Protein backbone atom coordinates (compact mmCIF):
# COMPACT_ATOMS: atom_id res chain seq x y z
CA UNK A 1 0.00 0.00 0.00
CA UNK A 2 1.22 3.48 -0.84
CA UNK A 3 1.76 5.91 2.03
CA UNK A 4 -0.11 9.14 2.54
CA UNK A 5 1.36 12.39 3.79
CA UNK A 6 0.45 15.68 5.33
CA UNK A 7 2.99 18.17 4.02
CA UNK A 8 3.23 21.82 5.00
CA UNK A 9 3.80 23.92 1.90
CA UNK A 10 5.11 27.00 3.72
CA UNK A 11 5.55 30.23 1.79
CA UNK A 12 5.61 30.14 -2.03
CA UNK A 13 9.35 30.85 -1.95
CA UNK A 14 9.96 27.36 -0.59
CA UNK A 15 10.74 26.16 -4.12
CA UNK A 16 13.62 28.65 -4.33
CA UNK A 17 15.12 27.87 -0.94
CA UNK A 18 17.91 25.57 0.12
CA UNK A 19 17.36 24.56 3.73
CA UNK A 20 16.73 21.50 5.84
CA UNK A 21 13.10 21.26 4.86
CA UNK A 22 13.59 21.60 1.11
CA UNK A 23 16.44 19.08 1.24
CA UNK A 24 14.12 16.70 3.07
CA UNK A 25 11.35 17.11 0.51
CA UNK A 26 13.74 16.57 -2.40
CA UNK A 27 14.66 13.13 -1.08
CA UNK A 28 11.20 12.11 0.15
CA UNK A 29 10.27 10.15 -2.97
CA UNK A 30 13.40 7.98 -2.83
CA UNK A 31 11.95 5.88 -0.04
CA UNK A 32 8.67 4.95 -1.71
CA UNK A 33 7.63 3.20 -4.95
CA UNK A 34 6.73 5.39 -7.91
CA UNK A 35 3.03 6.20 -7.58
CA UNK A 36 0.51 5.33 -10.26
CA UNK A 37 -1.08 8.72 -9.59
CA UNK A 38 -0.99 11.53 -7.05
CA UNK A 39 -4.07 12.82 -5.26
CA UNK A 40 -3.31 16.16 -3.64
CA UNK A 41 -5.63 18.00 -1.27
CA UNK A 42 -4.76 21.69 -1.24
CA UNK A 43 -5.67 24.34 1.32
CA UNK A 44 -5.54 26.95 -1.44
CA UNK A 45 -8.65 25.62 -3.15
CA UNK A 46 -11.68 26.30 -0.99
CA UNK A 47 -15.21 25.38 -1.99
CA UNK A 48 -18.55 24.65 -0.35
CA UNK A 49 -19.05 21.66 -2.63
CA UNK A 50 -16.18 19.20 -2.97
CA UNK A 51 -14.25 19.83 -6.17
CA UNK A 52 -12.30 17.20 -8.09
CA UNK A 53 -9.95 18.33 -10.83
CA UNK A 54 -10.44 16.57 -14.14
CA UNK A 55 -8.13 18.22 -16.65
CA UNK A 56 -5.90 16.87 -19.39
CA UNK A 57 -2.94 19.09 -18.49
CA UNK A 58 -2.61 21.57 -15.64
CA UNK A 59 -1.70 25.20 -15.95
CA UNK A 60 0.41 26.66 -13.13
CA UNK A 61 -1.47 29.16 -10.94
CA UNK A 62 0.46 31.96 -9.23
CA UNK A 63 -2.02 32.61 -6.43
CA UNK A 64 0.17 35.12 -4.58
CA UNK A 65 1.74 38.52 -5.10
CA UNK A 66 4.78 40.51 -4.05
CA UNK A 67 7.33 37.73 -4.41
CA UNK A 68 10.53 37.55 -6.52
CA UNK A 69 10.04 37.52 -10.30
CA UNK A 70 11.84 34.18 -10.48
CA UNK A 71 8.91 32.55 -8.74
CA UNK A 72 6.50 33.50 -11.52
CA UNK A 73 8.64 31.72 -14.11
CA UNK A 74 8.32 28.33 -12.44
CA UNK A 75 5.98 25.89 -14.12
CA UNK A 76 4.78 22.43 -13.15
CA UNK A 77 3.17 20.96 -16.29
CA UNK A 78 1.58 17.91 -14.72
CA UNK A 79 -1.03 16.00 -16.62
CA UNK A 80 -4.35 15.00 -15.11
CA UNK A 81 -5.93 11.58 -14.81
CA UNK A 82 -9.55 11.24 -15.91
CA UNK A 83 -9.92 7.69 -14.65
CA UNK A 84 -8.53 8.52 -11.22
CA UNK A 85 -10.82 11.54 -10.98
CA UNK A 86 -13.81 9.36 -11.89
CA UNK A 87 -12.77 6.76 -9.31
CA UNK A 88 -12.69 9.43 -6.62
CA UNK A 89 -16.13 10.55 -7.70
CA UNK A 90 -17.47 7.01 -7.35
CA UNK A 91 -16.02 6.76 -3.84
CA UNK A 92 -17.83 9.97 -2.91
CA UNK A 93 -21.02 8.68 -4.56
CA UNK A 94 -20.90 5.58 -2.36
CA UNK A 95 -20.78 7.78 0.75
CA UNK A 96 -23.34 10.29 -0.58
CA UNK A 97 -20.86 13.16 -0.63
CA UNK A 98 -21.77 15.84 -3.15
CA UNK A 99 -19.00 16.87 -5.53
CA UNK A 100 -18.31 18.58 -8.83
CA UNK A 101 -15.75 17.82 -11.52
CA UNK A 102 -13.62 20.83 -12.43
CA UNK A 103 -12.12 20.90 -15.92
CA UNK A 104 -10.52 24.36 -15.86
CA UNK A 105 -8.59 25.09 -12.66
CA UNK A 106 -4.81 24.76 -12.67
CA UNK A 107 -2.45 23.74 -9.89
CA UNK A 108 -2.18 26.32 -7.12
CA UNK A 109 1.01 26.78 -5.15
CA UNK A 110 -0.30 24.59 -2.35
CA UNK A 111 0.13 21.77 -4.85
CA UNK A 112 2.92 22.68 -7.24
CA UNK A 113 5.32 24.09 -4.64
CA UNK A 114 5.43 20.67 -2.98
CA UNK A 115 5.30 18.59 -6.15
CA UNK A 116 8.12 20.61 -7.72
CA UNK A 117 10.38 19.55 -4.86
CA UNK A 118 9.21 15.96 -4.42
CA UNK A 119 8.59 15.00 -8.08
CA UNK A 120 10.36 17.70 -10.13
CA UNK A 121 9.97 15.89 -13.47
CA UNK A 122 6.16 16.25 -13.37
CA UNK A 123 5.81 12.79 -14.90
CA UNK A 124 3.12 11.41 -12.60
CA UNK A 125 -0.57 12.20 -13.24
CA UNK A 126 -2.23 14.40 -10.64
CA UNK A 127 -5.76 14.94 -9.36
CA UNK A 128 -6.27 17.99 -7.16
CA UNK A 129 -9.00 18.20 -4.49
CA UNK A 130 -10.48 21.22 -2.74
CA UNK A 131 -11.26 21.69 0.96
CA UNK A 132 -14.43 22.93 2.60
CA UNK A 133 -13.58 24.76 5.82
CA UNK A 134 -17.25 24.85 6.84
CA UNK A 135 -17.44 21.10 7.42
CA UNK A 136 -16.85 19.83 10.98
CA UNK A 137 -13.50 18.27 11.77
CA UNK A 138 -15.04 14.80 12.04
CA UNK A 139 -16.32 15.12 8.48
CA UNK A 140 -12.87 16.10 7.21
CA UNK A 141 -11.49 12.93 8.78
CA UNK A 142 -14.24 10.90 7.10
CA UNK A 143 -13.25 12.30 3.70
CA UNK A 144 -9.75 11.02 4.32
CA UNK A 145 -11.08 7.57 5.21
CA UNK A 146 -12.95 7.48 1.91
CA UNK A 147 -9.85 8.48 -0.05
CA UNK A 148 -7.69 5.87 1.70
CA UNK A 149 -8.93 3.18 -0.70
CA UNK A 150 -6.94 4.88 -3.44
CA UNK A 151 -3.72 3.94 -1.67
CA UNK A 152 -4.45 0.26 -2.27
CA UNK A 153 -4.46 0.99 -6.01
CA UNK A 154 -0.96 2.46 -6.02
CA UNK A 155 -1.86 6.12 -5.63
CA UNK A 156 -0.03 8.54 -3.36
CA UNK A 157 -2.15 10.92 -1.27
CA UNK A 158 -0.65 14.27 -0.25
CA UNK A 159 -2.57 16.66 1.99
CA UNK A 160 -1.04 20.11 1.65
CA UNK A 161 -1.56 22.79 4.28
CA UNK A 162 0.08 24.14 7.41
CA UNK A 163 -0.72 23.57 11.08
CA UNK A 164 0.68 26.77 12.60
CA UNK A 165 -0.02 29.37 9.95
CA UNK A 166 -0.50 32.95 11.17
CA UNK A 167 0.37 35.24 8.28
CA UNK A 168 -0.38 38.39 10.28
CA UNK A 169 2.40 37.58 12.75
CA UNK A 170 5.11 36.43 10.35
CA UNK A 171 8.62 37.76 10.88
CA UNK A 172 10.35 37.11 7.59
CA UNK A 173 13.81 35.56 7.92
CA UNK A 174 13.78 35.98 11.70
CA UNK A 175 15.51 33.19 13.66
CA UNK A 176 13.14 33.83 16.57
CA UNK A 177 10.18 31.47 16.92
CA UNK A 178 7.18 32.60 18.96
CA UNK A 179 6.62 30.65 22.17
CA UNK A 180 2.92 30.28 21.41
CA UNK A 181 3.75 28.54 18.13
CA UNK A 182 6.10 26.09 19.85
CA UNK A 183 3.55 25.32 22.57
CA UNK A 184 0.80 24.67 20.05
CA UNK A 185 2.99 22.44 17.88
CA UNK A 186 4.16 20.44 20.91
CA UNK A 187 0.53 19.83 21.91
CA UNK A 188 -0.34 18.88 18.37
CA UNK A 189 2.54 16.42 18.03
CA UNK A 190 1.49 14.62 21.22
CA UNK A 191 -2.11 14.27 20.07
CA UNK A 192 -1.31 13.17 16.52
CA UNK A 193 1.27 10.58 17.62
CA UNK A 194 -1.22 9.29 20.19
CA UNK A 195 -4.00 9.37 17.57
CA UNK A 196 -6.17 11.26 20.04
CA UNK A 197 -8.75 12.32 17.49
CA UNK A 198 -11.27 13.26 20.16
CA UNK A 199 -8.91 15.96 21.42
CA UNK A 200 -7.84 16.95 17.92
CA UNK A 201 -11.41 17.45 16.76
CA UNK A 202 -11.78 19.95 19.64
CA UNK A 203 -8.39 21.61 19.16
CA UNK A 204 -9.90 25.04 18.63
CA UNK A 205 -11.26 24.97 22.18
CA UNK A 206 -8.62 23.04 24.12
CA UNK A 207 -5.24 23.40 22.41
CA UNK A 208 -2.88 26.05 23.81
CA UNK A 209 -2.77 29.20 21.68
CA UNK A 210 -5.06 27.69 19.05
CA UNK A 211 -6.46 31.06 17.98
CA UNK A 212 -2.98 32.40 17.29
CA UNK A 213 -1.74 29.25 15.59
CA UNK A 214 -4.84 28.65 13.46
CA UNK A 215 -6.58 31.97 12.78
CA UNK A 216 -8.36 30.38 9.80
CA UNK A 217 -9.18 26.72 9.29
CA UNK A 218 -8.39 25.99 5.66
CA UNK A 219 -4.69 25.21 6.17
CA UNK A 220 -5.30 22.95 9.16
CA UNK A 221 -8.04 20.87 7.52
CA UNK A 222 -5.65 18.80 5.34
CA UNK A 223 -4.18 17.32 8.53
CA UNK A 224 -7.55 15.80 9.43
CA UNK A 225 -7.98 14.47 5.91
CA UNK A 226 -4.48 13.01 6.02
CA UNK A 227 -5.15 11.30 9.34
CA UNK A 228 -8.37 9.93 7.91
CA UNK A 229 -6.41 8.23 5.14
CA UNK A 230 -4.49 6.41 7.86
CA UNK A 231 -7.47 5.41 9.98
CA UNK A 232 -6.98 1.67 9.42
CA UNK A 233 -3.61 1.52 11.18
CA UNK A 234 -3.89 4.76 13.17
CA UNK A 235 -0.15 5.31 13.19
CA UNK A 236 1.50 8.65 12.53
CA UNK A 237 5.20 9.31 12.01
CA UNK A 238 6.62 12.83 12.08
CA UNK A 239 9.27 12.80 9.36
CA UNK A 240 10.27 16.46 9.61
CA UNK A 241 9.48 19.47 11.74
CA UNK A 242 10.88 22.98 11.73
CA UNK A 243 9.73 26.59 11.78
CA UNK A 244 10.15 29.54 9.47
CA UNK A 245 9.42 33.27 9.63
CA UNK A 246 8.59 33.35 13.33
CA UNK A 247 5.67 30.91 13.44
CA UNK A 248 5.18 29.09 10.15
CA UNK A 249 5.45 25.37 10.87
CA UNK A 250 7.09 23.15 8.27
CA UNK A 251 6.05 19.61 9.04
CA UNK A 252 5.64 16.33 7.23
CA UNK A 253 3.56 13.52 8.69
CA UNK A 254 3.34 10.03 7.23
CA UNK A 255 0.23 7.94 7.83
Automatic annotation (TrEMBL):
Its cofactor is Zn(2+). This is Dioxygenase. GO terms for molecular function: ferrous iron binding; oxidoreductase activity, acting on single donors with incorporation of molecular oxygen, incorporation of two atoms of oxygen; zinc ion binding. The keyword Metal-binding applies. InterPro entries: Extradiol_dOase_DODA, Xdiol_dOase_suB. Belongs to the DODA-type extradiol aromatic ring-opening dioxygenase family. It comes from Bacillus solimangrovi. Residues 18-245 form the Extradiol ring-cleavage dioxygenase class III enzyme subunit B domain. Keywords: Dioxygenase, Metal-binding, Oxidoreductase, Zinc.
